[in-house]
Amino acid sequence: MQRLDRQTGRLAEWVRAMLTRRHPNVVACALANKLARTAWALATHRTTFDAAAGVMSS
C-alpha cells in the first residue's frame, strides 16, 4: 500500500476503492486475507496464477 500511487491493475483499484471506505489498517488486513485466499486456492487446485483469467474477482 506504500506505493499504491504507482500501481495499476484490478487489485490496485480494489485497494484504492477500499481505502475510500475503510481505515488503512482494515484495508491492510483485507488485502492480506485476499492474497492468502488466492494463494490457498492456487495451491489446492495445483494451478498457476493468470491475471488475465480473472482469478482475483471480487
Describe this structure in words.
This protein is an all-alpha fold and 58 residues long. The chain has one domain. Helices cover 57% and strands 0% of the residues. The mean pLDDT is 88.
Feature tags:
58 residues, mainly alpha, globular, 57% helix
Number of helices: 2
Number of strands: 0
Order of helices and strands: HH
Arithmetic mean pLDDT: 88
Residues in helix, %: 55-70%
Outline the biggest β-sheet: none
Estimated structural class: mainly alpha
Strand percent estimate: under 5%
List the helices and strands and how they pair.
Layout: H1 10-21, H2 24-44
Structure summarized in a few sentences:
The chain has 58 residues and is mostly helical. The protein contains two helices and no strands. The longest helix is centred in the middle third of the chain and has 21 residues, at 24-44.
